[in-house]
Amino acid sequence: MSRLDSFIRRLSAQKILIEHALELIADVPGPILELGLGVARTYDHMRTLAPEREIFAFDNVVVAPIDMLPDAHHFILGEIRETLAFCAPRVGGRAALLHNDIGSGDEIHNAATRAWLAPLVPPAMAPGGIVVTSFTMDLPGYEKLPTPPGIRANRYHIYRAPRG
Known about the structure:
Layout (H helix, E strand, L loop, with lengths): L2 H22 L7 E4 L5 H9 L5 E5 L15 E3 L2 H4 L4 H4 L3 E6 L6 H11 L3 H4 E9 L9 E3 L11 E4 L4
Parallel strand pairs: 1-2, 1-4, 2-3, 4-5
Antiparallel strand pairs: 5-7, 6-7
């Protein structure tokens, strides 16, 4: 498969998953956490589809076009492994959706990220909240959900936080 085909599949999968996840959280209160703002494609899609939700975007660099940046309150700049653990007062509640967009094609990088990220997720999540991630995570008590049709196996993963 060409890199272009792989890129198109990744973006198509993200679109399908974000739309599916937003349906799954319809009855779950709380903001959305976007880990890895990047050039703001997925952030922009979520804010378009869920304008009633607060979305907090995390990243350690600014590369998004200026008109795609969240306002200063909703953009948390810094190392995510440091900022996610202490964002609760700013976010104001536990997240209905966490979209992890900081994975890479490098399994060593993903394993290292998984090691520090997985313990930070449960304290940030609302009961019944949804985690969408490009790599598996050890989230005790979370239910691993099937991905919607059109997404290759093991490309993305969806977890639901315990309901209570």
